Amino acid sequence: MLSIYSDDHFMKQAYLQAQLAYDKGEIPVGAVVVANNQIIARAHNQTELLTDVTAHAEILAITAAANYLNSKYLTDCTLYVTLEPCVMCAGALYWSQISRLVYAAPDEKRGFMKHGKQLFHPKTSIEFGIMMEECSSLMSNFFKDRR
């Protein structure tokens, strides 16, 4: 049985957000922010809807979580995201001082890991690979459908 407090459960919630993005014609990336085993923010890419290149799932989730906590810092929070964050999102996560990042699929072209972990706050732990196949497939199918 899947625990509602497991990384798998929270990544599944991020995946549901990515599916919403897919259904709306947005690049399918979804994110949730968790504090004290509770989801405090949910977001998916909205760059097309908002005509805003910065409207990535991670940025929208950071803003929603900060508003929920009434704090600019996300210490003691975990971000679950279906795709490795880009450099812009990694910078925002650095400044938010998020405690933990869990991402599903790598982004070979635009992911922050090309530039190394120095983009993250030294106290941020980083994990990846949960639901990697599902999230990678969703992304591949999205671009296949658009060709």
If you had to describe this structure to a student in words, what would you say it looks like?
- The chain is α/β, with parallel strands linked by helices.
- It contains five helices and five strands; from the N terminus they run αββααβαββα.
- The protein has a five-stranded mixed β-sheet.
- A hairpin with a 2-residue loop joins strand 1 (30-35) and strand 2.
- The mean pLDDT is 93.
State the gist of this model:
With 147 residues, the chain is an alpha/beta fold. Helices cover 40% and strands 20% of the residues. It has helices at 7-23, 47-50, 57-69, 87-96, 132-146, and strands spanning 30-35, 38-44, 77-83, 100-105, 125-128.
Helix content: 40-55%
Rg over CA atoms: 14 Å
Which strand order spans the largest sheet, edge to edge or round the barrel?
Answer: 2-1-3-4-5
Mean pLDDT: 93
Annotation, overall tally of beta strands: 5
> Which stretches are poorly predicted, pLDDT < 50 over at least 5 residues?
none
Strand content: 15-25%
Q: Number of helix segments?
A: 5
Q: What sort of overall outline do the alpha carbons produce when their principal axes are compared?
A: globular
The major sheet is characterized as: 5 strands, mixed
Order of helices and strands: HEEHHEHEEH
Measured between the Cα atoms of the first and last residue, the distance is 39 Å
Structural class: alpha/beta
